Amino acid sequence: MRTGASSFRLILGVLLTTLVGLTALSANVAAQRSDAVARDARVGGDLKRTRFVADLSATVDFRAFLLADPYRVIIDLPKVQFQMPPGIGETGRGLINAFRYGLFAQGKSRIVIDTVGPVAIEKAFVRPSENGQPARLVIDLVSASEQEFQEQWRRQAALRAIQPQTNLTGPGGEGASGRDGDSGKPTIVLDPGHGGPDPGTVTRNGVYEKNVVFSFCQVLKAELEANGRFRVLMTRSEDIFVPLQERVEFARQSEADLMISVHADALDIKHPLVTRKMLNDVRGASVYTLSEEASDARAKLAAARENNSDVLAGIELPASADGSLESILIDLMHRETKNLSIAFAKKLLKELGSKTPLLKSPHRFADFRVLKAEDVPSVLVELGYLSNEKDETALTSKEWRLNVAKAMAKSIRSFFEQRHVSVPG
Ligand SMILES: [Zn+2]
Questions:
Q1: Ligand 1: distance of its center to the CA of 310 in Å?
Q2: pLDDT tens string 169-193
Q3: How remote is the CA of residue 303 from the centroid of ligand 1, in Å?
Q4: Full 3-state SS string of 116-170
């Protein structure tokens, strides 16, 4: 079927009309060049109409749009300093289930709102500061049918296609352009999980997984660099979102010899089947290697949770993201990479076990997207359970961090020593 020139002009006309319409939505109030500060946010209303308000130190340009699967409202902003009360956004009201926020890419911040179902953005504007009140970003959502949602979503998607704003930059870490002056040294890529609008697990005490794992990776990096034997890179060097696929690409382009993705586990404290006793009992570190078949139900759950990172940050996944192509990639993965990953996981567990409790059967297998660099031996470490009080105290303590980082560095040195010895000639 061909699209005639006249229908093309019609489509273009519709797009331009939509452009004018939506530009009115995204308030183009004079943009402040220094970062605005967001200090608080509120949700009010009911299941028919809900208002989201964020207090800002200055007016900003922004763009608000819808995403499906699951239903979300995304607000893209220039870089904003979020100084929100801890735990804010964990629960919502009316049409809003929860919201998250953070640095999404260099110079770009994002707020992600989870909604209870299909909604439409009725109004979106920034009210300038007046009478001593802060500037306010206001998003009015109304309940919508699936069809109404789809219509608004389609209009916005078309608009985004001709007016791209969120061109993702590479990972927030150091440059990944192959080997540099450090040639000859093994390259280790450390991958602190989550970041920006994806906080990972958030505990009742307001501890964020993204911060726990970032601090840990910083200490481990320093530990590895101390003796000058390794080139160490991180997939992010600040609190910024990095898509899972870009983390994998970063490891490959850096020609990494080992990739360690660092996370912290948690039981879902809101789940009706999770008891106080389970929260007290389930603790300890575990190490995952890639496998299409999960070693057990909990491993499968862990992979599902960590793989959800892109969704939490408001990325639209391509339709084929979990299709057969990925299975083929796993099949093609060099057997050697797989064996090396497993060998390292074992060494790592041996050293970790001397410094921190381990989960029962701590070497687990699951289908983690971040472990799919087919030529880079990769493991994912869950440092412990943030849902367990003892683990939470340990994971946030300086002393524990240093001890466990030292143990991990020891296992890495031993891994490369053995690899070196095993090379013939
Ligand atoms: Zn995680």
A1: 12
A2: 345 445 545 555 556 789 999 999 9
A3: 9
A4: CCCEEEEEEEEECCECCECEEEEEEEEECCHHHHHHHHHHHHHHHHHCCCCCCCC
What's the gap in Å between 7 CA and the centre of ligand 1? 48
Å from CA of 306 to ligand 1 middle? 5
What's phi and psi for 306, nearest 5 deg?
A: -70, -35
30 CA distance to ligand 1 middle (Å): 38
Cα 405 to ligand 1 centre (Å): 18
Going from N- to C-terminal start, the domains of the chain cover 12-162, 187-422
Residues making up the chain, counted from first to last:
425
C-alpha 309 to ligand 1 mean position (Å): 8
Distance of CA 10 to the CA centre of its chain: 39
User: Which tens digit of pLDDT belongs to each residue from 380-415?
Assistant: 999 999 999 999 999 999 999 999 999 999 999 999
State yes or no: cis peptide before 70, omega within 30 of 0: yes
Q: 283 is written with which tokens?
A: 């603790």
**Cα-to-centroid distance, 192 and ligand 1 (Å):** 9
CA 190 to ligand 1 centroid distance, Å: 14
Ligand 1 centroid, distance to 202 Cα (angstroms):
10
Distance from Cα 113 to the centre of ligand 1, integer Å: 20
What is the three-class DSSP state of 329?
A: helix
What is the CA(307)–ligand 1 centre distance, in A? 9
Q: Which residues contact 215 (CB under 8 A, 6 or more apart)?
A: 401
This prediction has a pTM of 0.76
- Quick one: how far is CA 151 from the chain centroid? 28
Class in CATH terms, 12-162: mainly beta
- The CATH homologous superfamily to which domain 187-422 belongs is Zn-dependent exopeptidases (3.40.630.40)
pLDDT band at 140 (very low <50, low <70, confident <90, very high): very high
139: closest CA among 113, 159, 117?
113
Rounded to 10°, the helix 5-25/146-162 angle is 100
